[in-house]
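Input/output pair, single chain:
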Amino acid sequence: MLARCPVDHDFDPLSAVQLDDPFAVIAALDREGAPVFYAPSLDYYVVTRMADIEQVFRDNATFSAANAQLPLVTVVPEAQQILLAGGHRPQPSMVSLDEPAHARLRGPAAKAFTPKRVNGMEPTITATTKDLLDRVDGLDRFDLVETLTFPLPATTIFSLMGVPASDVDQLKQWGGVRAGLGWGRPGPDEQVTLATGMAEYRGYLRSLVARKATDRGDDLTSDLLAIHDEAPDDLSHEEIASILFSLSFAGHETTNNLIGNIVRRLLEDPARWDELVADRSLIPQAVEETLRYDTSVPCWRRVTTTATTLGGVDLPEGAKLLLWIAAAGRDPEKFEQPDTFDLHRANSRHHVAFGKGIHFCLGANLARLEAAIALGELADRWPRLGLEPGQTLTFHPNISFRGPQHLWVNPERMGKA
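Output:
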């Protein structure tokens, strides 16, 4: 079977070269001759074309989400024991469930992201953004990730969940733990450390559900518990904790990276920033073009439930697929001059950065709102904002969440980085 499928022995999204610049690899793709290829470094089939990725997202019967959050590497026994002892069981979460189980959990979770509720969060998000930026007002340089892109979405999603402000920093730290264990390639010793944090993360969420069961508030956890009260067998406390586990990470890590990616791409060409400052109606377009051009979720995963054909390649049952969403955003069949960042691109929104179909990201509109507010506040305060020259950007070593770990900026432009 592999004789019909191209094999790329050099492809490794966790290599230093690809972590630094995956787009150079994307630019060299042979999409026509090898739209799907096998990567021995991961034991995954890599899917690169927009049309094929959309087909996978839409066909949930053939392409299961069961492996979406499984560790890339085999977890050592010691780490497994820590996870199990801490209650981190191999129970699928909403992101990795297929129908009908997925719909049963998604329905209650979706109530947190109704247009009314998301729009009602705008004043709080704006106030939080202003407060965070006030702390660096007057400085001649600061790290935008530490200042804004990391704390803003964390504060927003954890507040939505009903997490006390005093616990937010701890949950932010656990988010990084989850990225490393689920989507990275940690060694045995690091796995033990990450597993300890993951077990604590799960345990905290169970405790939060238990506390909220007797002390309700105006938050998602209390809303989910109200659903449990009406039909305890339809939504258990354990499943509520699982929903929170999915949303707390997705609502923080991805938006943190999204805002960092947007600001980076706007500032690397000062003319882009100047144009946006002069015309704030371009802010939504800047968000969508970045989601296409430099998505914060570059890869996602599926597994075949039966033998099938995709992109001209015969796949066996159980074939693991790496959906290269970043490559889909640069697909020349979908986007004209895909390697050009264009604030006026007509079809920027036709990306798959939020997925597609039944697993489309619940928090997409909240992410868009946070990013738009952040850009507006930055433009108001610092119309001549610039990247600090000479900095080297670094990225967390995982396959599915990408954004600068630090992004140094200065209020008065000093030149291009």
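Residues 52 and 197 are 37 Å apart (CA to CA). The first helix runs from residue 16 to 20.
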